[in-house]
Write a structure and sequence with these properties.
Chalcone isomerase, 29% helix, binds heme C, 5 strands, Cytochrome_P460_sp, alpha+beta
Amino acid sequence: MFASKFSLSIATAAVIAGGFAAWQAWAANDRVQFPEGYENGIHYATVNRGGIREEIFTSPEAVAAAKAGQPLPDGTIIMMEDHRSGGLHRYVVMEKRAGWGDAYPENFRAGDWEFREFAPDRTPNIREDGQRCMSCHQSQAGQDFVFTLDRMRSAN
Ligand code: HEC
């Protein structure tokens, strides 16, 4: 009786551990921290789409690399403020770190970038696992997965 209960719980633990590992491999996108002080970087673009106004920021190092036609450096963070109906709706952030992409299958990763959404109070949205972000930004693989790379190149 004891033995069968014991082996059942081992089996359950193995299934849970396996499920957790698979979830981590496919849907982590939880390593990006809120980039406090981002507004001291370079505000390189404003994009207006319908009722949405987006303000986009990155580091001077990233802008320099974009202008030089180099890949964006390791550690690059791009912040996009998403304003709707006159108020801040959310923040979306992408961050590039060497090796981060290894956690994802080849056809799924967006280079070494991870993506994360934050609420206006700067806490992460834990319901957003970043898969949509990655798959849409994959279309920009030819320009380091960044839609607004041209805007970065022409930043002042
Ligand atoms: C359906 C496509 C799509 C999805 C999904 C998407 N994005 Fe984007 N993203 C864009 C486009 C297009 C832009 C360029 C700005 C614009 O046109 O609004 C952009 C711009 C950005 C930028 C500024 C840098 C750049 O690439 O220009 C960041 C940061 C960003 N997105 C993060 C995210 C995050 C985080 C998520 C998921 C929560 C996400 N995106 C989901 C299409 C997408």
